[in-house]
Amino acid sequence: MAVSCLTRALRSLTVSQNAPLLSQISVLGAAGLGRGFVTTTPLDQNNRFWKIREKYTIRPIGMKKTGGRDHTGWIRTHGIGGGHKQRYRIIDFQRLRYEPQKEGVPFEEKVVEVRYDPCRSADIALVAGGNRKRWIIATEKMQAGDVIKTSGVIGRMAVSANEGDAYPLGALPVGTLINNLEVQPGKGSEYIRAAGTSGVLLRKVNGTAIVQLPSKLQVQVQETCMVTVGRVSNIDHNKRIIGKAGRNRWLGKRPSSGLWQRKGGWAGRKIKPLPPMKIFVNMPSVIPK
Predict the structure, then answer these.
(1) What is the pLDDT of residue 282?
(2) CA 276 to chain centre
(3) 0.85 surpassed by pTM
(4) For 9, which DSSP code?
(5) Are residues 103 and 113 in contact, defined by beta-carbon separation less than 8 angstroms?
(6) What is the rounded distance in angstroms from the CA atom of residue 106 to the CA atom of residue 127?
(7) Which one, of 263, 182, 193, 189, lies nearest residue 234 by Cα?
(8) pLDDT given at position 10
(9) Which of 38, 94, 105, 175 lies in the 20 to 30 Å Cα band around 11?
(10) Which DSSP state fits 44?
(11) Integer Cα distance of 202 and 183 in angstroms
């Protein structure tokens, strides 16, 4: 008797269009593909383009975990999921960023703090100079209170740079250890950013510079590309001991399926020649006479 009364009462209920649950959830795609996002919360994690900012900020930004899935909800990268909550700090990879009305003038910045960053293997440093603060990749011996210099001037003589300073490749002597290498002037560093890595300036030829990367690959870029002098911080990153499976789960790494597969010829040791030099410079072609 009670069950029948309850059934009739549930049937008589109607879901109104202004129900709070329907107004809070928006489904991506007309066909219902993808995962829903809560739209009434002010948190920035719900923005799929949370990294794109109109104004630079040094404040940590909330991240939305993807679990290795794309916008359709299907897994695109296996082995990702879970992990401790992380917040992202925007790194300014373009060291030569002048302040307004001070273009072309070398400037100095003071290191405020050096700290751990959960989103990368290297440590990061908060530097302040003029009317701004920004995060950069820290070098090996960088400490709070250090003063680092950034200059875009290429003089007749090579400069004697200290660790953490940023100069164009054409201003440094041959054999200098460098990191945070630009391949296009003004675009920002793209190479040699991982913990403990460093490259070597091999030679300078006709307005270009040849740099050896940590992988022994040689790249040729313009001498106006900016680099940081020294080695990237956290050099003992590759010596850390995970200790247990749970720590990998803290880091957001899921275990493999466990399916045993026999290793083929791809797993053996191979002796390969060095790859050819990668050229990022549009050199003028020589027309034979």
Answers:
(1) 81
(2) 26
(3) no
(4) H
(5) no
(6) 15
(7) 193
(8) 60
(9) 38
(10) G
(11) 15
**Residue 103: φ, ψ to 5°:** -70, 140
pLDDT at site 285: 52
Q: Which amino acid is at 284?
A: P
Strand partners, 164: none
**Residue 228: strand pairing partners:** 166, 179
Residue whose C-alpha is closest to residue 216's, from 140, 277, 175, 280? 277
Q: Residue 203: enclosing H or E segment and its boundaries? A: strand 199-205
| Residue at 230: amino acid letter | G
Q: Which residue has the tokens 């006709």?
A: 206
Determine the residue type at 175.
Answer: G
253 CB-near residues (< 8 Å, 6+ apart): 79, 80, 83
Side chain identity at residue 73, one-letter code: G
Quick: pLDDT tens for 157-210: 999 999 999 999 999 999 999 999 999 999 999 999 999 999 999 999 999 999
**Residue partners of 177: CB distance under 8 A and separation at least 6:** 198, 199, 200, 229, 230, 231
- Dig out the tokens for 284 from the structure: 């003028």
Place of tokens 């045993």: 260
Interatomic CA distance for residues 119 and 109, integer angstroms: 24
Query: Dihedrals φ, ψ of 22, to 5°?
Result: -70, -30
Residue type, 258: G
For position 7, what pLDDT does the model report? 65
